[in-house]
Each structure stands twice: as C-alpha cells, then as structure tokens.
Amino acid sequence: FCSSQVLLKSDAPTGDVLLDETLRHIKATETAETVQTWIELLTGRTWNPFKLQYQLRNVRERLAKALVEKGILTTEKQNFLLFDMTTHPVCNASEKQRLLKRLQESVLERWVNEPQRMERRTLALLVLAHASDVLENVFASLADDKYDVAMNRTKDLLDMDPEVEAAKGRGTEMIWAVLAAFNK
C-alpha cells in the first residue's frame, strides 16, 4: 500500500511555504512517485542523485523557524563539549499542553472506535506521533489506568490494516498510506 503512487489533485497554493514547495515538486515529477519515496525525498532520507531536485532543503530548520515565528519554539545555542549547537526548546508550554490534551481527550473521552469517524487532523496527529516515536509521551501524564486505555486504543488503531481503512475513504487515504510507509 505504501507503494501506491501519489497523484496530485490540485496544485492550488496552500499558503504554507513548505507545503507549496512540496506541491511544486510533486507536480514537476515526470512519473508519479510512491508515498514511501516522497517521504524519503521530502525528509532528506535518500541520496538518490537522480532525484535530488525533488528534495526539500533544510526541512527541520525551516519547520523549527516557522514554529519560532509562531511563538511555539524558541532558538537557543547550547554548548556540547567542543561545539555549539542550535536547539529549539518549547517556549509556549500552553500550546503544547493544549495539543497533548486534545490527543488525550480524543482517545479517552471522544473515542469513536471507528477511524473513519475520527476527525482527520486527530488521526493524522496520532499517526505522526507514532511515526515520531513520541506517542507514549503524549499519554505519560495520565493515571495508570487511563494510560493503559489510551495506549491500547491507539495500538488497536495503529495495528489496523491501512489498505482496508484507506479503502473506506473519507479523505484519509494519505494518512493511512503514511502509516503504512512508517510501519514498513
């Protein structure tokens, strides 16, 4: 399923610099690429010399800069023995807490037990938290019994067959394709 090709439905600008650049890259490809290939290209995980023109440059730095501009992160220099390194710690703890609370509530209080009925943004956040290996941190502040419920529900969700879930539609096909690519 993660070998499915990405087809561009619309190249209308989104207003986000990175997303618009991504759309231009997808539009410029001569042949459709797979979800897995686009993840590798857009995150800089591949060094295919024939596809370098499709890679996004300095993705992490640009994402961090955008979050600094929105007031969520700050920029600091930290000294690590022999060299200085730029870090981006969270400066807006309330925004982070709001996001954590949203995910916790979606899995505990607003759980629908059917991914096709879940809000797409919440489903995408859960998939990205899983792919980033921070899902346990999202639920770490919960009491043990609620933590177990949250982790079991998300495990059940993430263990679903992405191909079957994507076939149910509702505009979540790409989310499931990304999950399949990260689970590969």
From TrEMBL:
<keyword id="KW-0333">Golgi apparatus</keyword>
<keyword id="KW-0472">Membrane</keyword>
<dbReference type="GO" id="GO:0048194">
    <property type="term" value="P:Golgi vesicle budding"/>
</dbReference>
<dbReference type="InterPro" id="IPR008628">
    <property type="entry name" value="GPP34-like"/>
</dbReference>
<dbReference type="GO" id="GO:0000139">
    <property type="term" value="C:Golgi membrane"/>
</dbReference>
<dbReference type="Pfam" id="PF05719">
    <property type="entry name" value="GPP34"/>
</dbReference>
<dbReference type="GO" id="GO:0005802">
    <property type="term" value="C:trans-Golgi network"/>
</dbReference>
<dbReference type="GO" id="GO:0007030">
    <property type="term" value="P:Golgi organization"/>
</dbReference>
<dbReference type="GO" id="GO:0043001">
    <property type="term" value="P:Golgi to plasma membrane protein transport"/>
</dbReference>
<dbReference type="GO" id="GO:0005829">
    <property type="term" value="C:cytosol"/>
</dbReference>
<comment type="similarity">
    <text>Belongs to the GOLPH3/VPS74 family.</text>
</comment>
<dbReference type="GO" id="GO:0006890">
    <property type="term" value="P:retrograde vesicle-mediated transport, Golgi to endoplasmic reticulum"/>
</dbReference>
<protein>
    <submittedName>
        <fullName>GLP3L protein</fullName>
    </submittedName>
</protein>
<keyword id="KW-0446">Lipid-binding</keyword>
<dbReference type="InterPro" id="IPR038261">
    <property type="entry name" value="GPP34-like_sf"/>
</dbReference>
<dbReference type="GO" id="GO:0032580">
    <property type="term" value="C:Golgi cisterna membrane"/>
</dbReference>
<dbReference type="GO" id="GO:0070273">
    <property type="term" value="F:phosphatidylinositol-4-phosphate binding"/>
</dbReference>
